[in-house]
């Protein structure tokens, strides 16, 4: 159990709390931990969301299936991330998607709604962290809606870079997570994104390495959205 508390210090829900504080808080509530195999389903679409889930180890995909039967990866979560935080307090607390483990020994901690409310009462930092998580997810969803409204990968990539450029006013933009995370955000495959990035680099619009995107021609980047 000590390993779990050491790990939870990196979870956004417990930000600004010490290991000792996390241990003390969790000793006052009930929680459970489940382990899953690769490709094992945690929740199917339509299943009730009665618990907040914290990914302790491994990774998961949030998947949706369209009318033709094609699986669409909505998002990927990694270690220390949480999911189900918006649904659990919703009037319609049912998963609109399917949650699938992507690695063997994927471990998830579950906290029921009543125990989350107790944690809010015990510690204001957890309440503030939870609100911050919800706010960030709403921002992400808003960005995703804007991106999905665009027709081409180049337009989506251009809007993504311009949004980050406006926020930092710098032509050097960190690659947060991985290019696969960006592909999931755009609802495209990683190979398709990679091909477009190569094309944009060849056209002199951007450059990139493992850690950063570099805007080389801001005017061309903006003009992409006008087509």
Explained architecture:
- The chain is an alpha+beta fold and 227 residues long.
- It has two domains: 2-141, Jelly Rolls; 150-224, Orthogonal Bundle (Arc Repressor Mutant, subunit A).
- The protein is built from eight helices and eleven strands.
- The chain has helices spanning 2-8, 19-26, 113-122, 124-148, 153-168, 179-186, 190-202, 218-224, and strands at residues 32-36, 41-43, 51-57, 60-65, 71-77, 82-83, 98-101, 106-112, 172-174, 206-208, 212-215.
- Strands 1-8-3-6 form a four-stranded antiparallel beta sheet. The chain has a four-stranded antiparallel beta sheet with strand order 2-7-4-5.
- A hairpin with a 3-residue loop joins strand 10 (206-208) and strand 11 (212-215).
- Helix 1 crosses helix 2.
- The protein is globular, with a radius of gyration of 20 Å.
- The termini are far apart.
- The mean pLDDT is 89.
List keywords for this structure.
8 helices, 227 residues, Jelly Rolls, 11 strands
**Strand tally:** 11
Q: Would you give the CATH topology of the largest domain?
A: Jelly Rolls
**CATH level-4 homologous superfamily of the largest domain:** Jelly Rolls
Helix tally equals: 8
Mean pLDDT: 89
User: What number of structural domains do the residues give?
Assistant: 2
By CATH, the architecture of the largest domain is named: Sandwich
CATH domain class of the largest domain: Mainly Beta
> Hey, roughly how much beta strand do the residues contain?
15-25%
Helix content: 40-55%
Distance between the termini: 55 Å
